[in-house]
Write a structure and sequence with these properties.
Pfam families: Cation_ATPase_N, E1-E2_ATPase, Hydrolase. By secondary structure, the chain is an alpha+beta fold. It contains 36 helices and 27 strands. The strands form seven sheets. An eight-stranded mixed beta sheet has the order 10-23-22-21-11-18-20-19, sandwiched between helices. Strands 12-17-16-15-14-13 form a six-stranded antiparallel beta sheet. It has a four-stranded antiparallel beta sheet with strand order 3-9-4-7, with no helix packed on it.
Length: 1029
């Protein structure tokens, strides 16, 4: 079988001048000309990383506010703003540096060395100092330090890091041995042709520069939220500022109040909290063997719906393993005895000399102790001209001798004279070849002295033990896993079949190439998006194809993850939303990746998906709260400044106690023209509430079963409801307090007496603080009641701490003027129960607020407002409904693949059970019938999606959904028949697999129904189960 090699396109071998070594002076001169032999790596100085944290859009807002505060000489507020600014910058800088240092340390621990002839002597030096023209020694176990041309002899080179091919490639005189590959057999001298950026390794890295400067997805979302809130803040604060000036308020005081209100309303802490939450998540991931080099990649991983994975070394072990299928052609032979025969064609008492010797001698089924009865009297090692090994063996028991040979089937068949046997073997090899399984032929001589075919050892690079389970778990979380490999397409299909990934594997003929300027085609996503989305994988691809696959998916709105370990994976890792370098990756892969795995396998990926979705939920909870808190604060002061004029509610003046002829205010305070809160109180609300909300990074949340996406319309709608209730209750309380001097007022009727203006200010401070934090506990549960999800102890303690401090401050606030605003502690005077009544009032309105939130969600789910239902099941990050063909095609795509895999697993279990009990034949037939029903159901669902796209009437879509429900019922009924036909013992063994099929089928039906009808999840479940009741 011809193995595909992406380096074949380089053409025939070329004539070259063999190096005899350089002098140190020549090497120094060439080093100045060609530079160091390493990848060009752009590093950003630490000070510049910190500076960038201070000049981003959100920090610029804080700078403007701080400058205004300094201009009006409001130094306390200026200091607070600077503190917020530098704390935020330090957090971002620290996490960036920490991740970079971890990867740098990993890279330093793998620094390559080279053996070079300098000044007539062989020396070992840092491979970075190798130059073109050097004479280098490449020997078994060493890395190739640069692109070299073999001077003489033959070596076997492992190029899996470059091409994805598991088996070594034989290199002879004049062949180009690439930097990044490893010599596994032989030793020779080679002439260095290219170094550094001019190597195949280095040229691949040029693709890494594309798309590196664009904003991350999380940053775009935060900027969108910031833009809406900043515009709203500027409009309302600007209006309030103009009103204050019009009422004769001094310019300096009006400006100071407006600026601080603006800063307090803008979610300055949003980056601190989000960065801290991501940092806490990165620590959790590092504990599971994943180093996060870009914090925002965690948010991208939460929304990831496509995971493109390299095969060799990522999905597989990157080593050949003997398979169970072992055709034998001589009597009394089985796999173990055939392995022993193959070992006789090797130096079994010595360490393995090449990959095939390792395969035979190190196999778990091998029993070398049984070979002690044999003596090897002659041995013919592997030679490129003969292409097989041969051992002449003497049996110590009877003194007889025979020969054994192993090699490629077409080579061994040349020894066999029986044409019928040759035909049988060729048929077997062709059958294995169709599945991508390789064969090693073993032959021996018998008493007649003729060669006879003994059997075939089948082998391939098997999947890692946890890969299949990892892939199915990823699918269960709505992530479509695609295999992208440079290996042969038949091998790729067999690996995909074993892993249950689907066998719709394409070769690169169906993909475009890079344009002349090295950029992706402009119509890439539009032209190839559907093909790539529906494919299960691609084989025999070049590095540029991997890059184009990722780019096409990203252009079509998918959040794409890419895993890999080799140089050929690096460009795609860089371009992906989430690039994951697996354990043992090359420097290029680690440098390009967002996450570096330090443990084997992909299980850390699934854990990362779960962790990322938990982190996403925490960030969404905080942002939901922060938007509502901003709207509450803004609208409250806007309405209060414009409508509630304290002077109009001031108590009537009465004769002064000292001089009855003069009139005095019973409050002994001049009530102002408009209500305002001291700047210090506003900043305390921001610092205490938002500061302690960093603890939300530890909150208890439930990860979504589908990739996360930001539905900002829903987010703002819920925030408006939460903020509106909190604002309305604050306005109501302020009005009642201002009216407390009215004998017919609420306060007077309820026996709370009259409120001095200073206490009114402090009371509103306490009310806003308490309502603010209680809003978080409502926002964090989304469409559930606030008690439906228990907060983490850390968040609860932080909330109690912040609310306790706010309550104490409100009680003992010094009597007098703060920022020219009258203030007085609520615990002073004759009536000291006001803090208790404020808390009761806030809790009452908290229940109202939560009820309004639940009601808002019910209405949105009931009528699919803002696509709240369809957005959850359309598996495309930039789509919320099925209006586009790709969005429609994404619905049920992963669920369908998972269902097919689960059906295959169930069939396998039943077939295995049937071998033990012939009575299970009917059960297997029932499952096959269920499988056919599933296939028809999938086709019906696709057809209904097409009809929905072409404008079917709602009633037509409803009919299609009802038909799909009936199909699901057939599946469930068939599964029930399967279960009933089993014996109790076998049923217990098979039931988990059957239940997995049932769950996958119902999930596919529910998600598709939800996408087509816009029904909520519960309504879709009811529609798919109503016929079963």
């Amino acid at each position: 079988m011809a193995d595909h090699d992406p380096l074949e396109h380089e053409g025939p071998k070329k004539e070259f001048v063999r190096s005899v070594g350089l002098t140190s002076k020549e090497a120094e001169e060439l080093l100045r000309v060609h530079g160091r032999n390493e990848l060009e790596e752009k590093t950003t100085p630490s000070w510049l990383v910190f500076l960038k944290q201070l000049i981003q859009p959100m920090p610029i807002m804080i700078w403007i506010a701080a400058i205004i505060e300094a201009a009006i000489q409001n130094w306390p507020d200026f200091g607070i703003l600077l503190g917020i600014q530098f704390i935020n910058a330090f957090l971002g800088w620290y996490e960036t540096q920490k991740a970079g240092n971890a990867v740098a340390a990993l890279k330093a621990s793998l620094k390559p060395q080279a053996t070079v002839k300098r000044d007539g002597k062989w020396v070992t030096l840092d491979a970075a100092f190798v130059v073109p023209g050097d004479l280098v020694l490449v020997a078994s176990g060493s890395s190739v330090p640069a692109d070299c041309l073999i001077n003489h002899g033959t070596v076997d080179v492992d190029q899996s890091a470059l091409t994805g091919e598991s088996l070594p490639v034989s290199m002879r005189e004049g062949d180009s041995c690439k930097m990044g590959s490893t010599v596994v057999r032989g030793e020779t001298e080679a002439t260095v042709e290219f170094t550094g950026k001019n190597t195949f390794f280095g040229k691949t890295a040029s693709l890494l520069q594309a798309g590196g400067d664009e904003l991350g997805h999380l940053q775009k979302i935060l900027l969108t939220i910031m833009f809406v809130l900043v515009v709203t803040s500027f409009v309302l604060c600007g209006t309030a500022f103009g009103f204050l000036l019009g009422k004769g308020e001094p310019f300096k005081e009006a400006l100071s109040f407006t600026v601080v209100l603006l800063v307090a309303s803008i979610p300055i802490a949003i980056e601190i909290v989000c960065t801290t939450t991501l940092a806490l998540g990165s620590r959790e991931l590092s504990a599971h063997g994943a180093i996060v080099t870009r914090l925002a990649a965690i948010e991208d991983m939460a929304g990831m719906n496509m995971l493109c994975s390299d095969k060799t070394g990522t999905l597989t072990l990157n080593k050949m393993v003997i398979q169970d299928e072992t055709p034998v052609y001589l009597p009394d032979l089985d796999q173990v005895k055939l392995l022993q025969l193959a070992a006789l064609a090797a130096k079994w008492h010595e360490p393995p000399r090449d990959a095939l010797d390792t395969l035979v001698l190190s196999s778990p089924q091998q029993n070398l102790a049984a070979l002690d009865v044999y003596e090897q009297v002659d041995y013919m090692p592997f030679d490129p001209t003969v292409k097989r090994t041969e051992g002449t063996i003497r049996d110590k028991r009877d003194g007889s001798t025979f020969k054994v040979s192993k090699g490629a089937p077409h080579i061994i068949l040349k020894l066999i004279k029986d044409p019928h046997m040759c035909e049988i073997v060729e048929h077997s090899v062709a059958g294995f070849g169709q599945r991508g399984v390789r064969c090693l032929a073993v032959a021996r001589t018998l008493q007649d002295g003729e060669w006879h075919m003994a059997g075939l050892l089948t082998f391939l690079d098997p999947p890692r033990p946890d890969t299949k389970d990892t892939i199915h778990k990823a699918m269960a979380f709505g992530v479509d896993v695609k295999m992208i490999t440079g290996d042969n397409i038949l091998i790729a299909k067999e690996t995909a079949r074993v892993l249950g990934m689907g066998v719709n594997i394409h070769d690169p003929k169906s993909l475009p190439n890079m344009e002349g300027d090295g950029k992706a085609p402009k119509d890439l996503g539009k032209k190839y998006g559907k093909l790539i989305m529906e494919a299960d994988g691609f084989a025999q691809v070049f590095p540029e194809h991997k890059y184009l696959i990722v780019e096409a998916l990203r252009q079509n709105g998918f959040a794409v993850g890419m895993t890999g370990d080799g140089v050929n994976d690096a460009p795609a890792l860089k371009r992906a939303d989430v690039g994951v370098a697996v354990q043992g990756s090359t420097d290029a892969a680690r440098a390009a990746a967002d996450i570096v795995l330090t443990q084997p396998g992909l299980s850390a990926i699934v854990h990362g998906i779960v962790t990322a979705r938990c982190i996403f939920q925490r960030m969404k909870n905080f942002i939901n709260y922060r938007i509502s808190a901003t709207l509450q604060l803004l609208t409250f002061f806007f309405i209060a400044v414009l409508t509630l004029k304290p002077k109009e509610y001031a108590p009537a003046k009465i004769p002064c106690a000292e001089n009855p002829e003069e009139l005095c205010s019973p409050d002994n305070t001049e009530w102002p023209d408009f209500f305002k809160m001291p700047v210090l109180m506003l900043m305390l609300i921001t610092l205490l509430n938002d500061g302690t909300l960093i603890s939300i990074g530890y909150d208890n949340v439930k990860p979504s079963t589908m990739p996360e996406k930001w539905n900002l319309k829903v987010l703002f709608a819920v925030s408006i409801v939460l903020g509106g209730v909190a604002c309305g209750s604050s306005i109501l309380l302020l009005w009642a307090a201002l009216d407390s001097w009215n004998p017919d007022g609420i306060f007077q009727k309820w026996g709370m007496g009259s409120m001095p203006y200073g206490k009114i200010t402090t009371m509103i401070y306490l009310k806003v603080s308490v309502s603010d934090f209680l809003t978080l506990f409502s926002a964090r549960t989304h469409d559930g009641w606030f008690w439906s999800a228990r907060p983490s102890p850390i968040l609860l303690i932080a909330g109690i701490l912040a609310l306790s401090i706010s309550t104490v401050l409100a009680c003992v606030w010094p009597t007098g003027h703060t920022d020219n605003t009258p203030c007085e502690g609520l615990a002073y005077g004759d009536y000291t129960l006001m803090p208790l009544w404020i808390w009761i009032y806030c809790i009452f309105w908290w229940f109202v607020q939560d009820g309004m939130k639940v009601g808002a969600y019910w209405i949105m789910h009931r009528f699919n407002l803002f696509d709240i239902n369809t957005a959850a099941v359309v598996n495309k990050r930039d789509a919320t409904n099925v209006s586009s063909p790709l969005a429609r095609g994404s619905v049920g795509l992963v669920e369908g693949k998972l269902l097919a895999a689960k059906v295959e697993e169930a069939q396998h279990k039943l077939n295995h059970a049937a071998k033990a009990d012939e009575g299970l034949g009917r059960a297997s037939m029932n499952l096959a019938r269920a499988s056919a029903n599933l296939t028809r159901m999938s086709a019906t669902l696709k057809q209904s999606r097409v009809q929905a796209h072409h404008g079917s009437k709602p009633s037509s879509v409803k009919g299609d959904v009802e038909e799909n429900v009936a199909s699901v019922d057939q599946v469930v009924d068939a599964l029930g028949a399967v279960a009933m036909s089993l014996t109790p013992k076998v049923r217990d063994d098979v039931n988990p697999a059957l239940e997995s099929v049932r769950e996958a089928a119902e999930r596919l039906a529910v998600n598709t129904t939800q996408a087509l009808t816009g029904a909520s999840t519960s309504a879709a479940q009811a529609m798919t189960s109503s016929r079963r009741v």
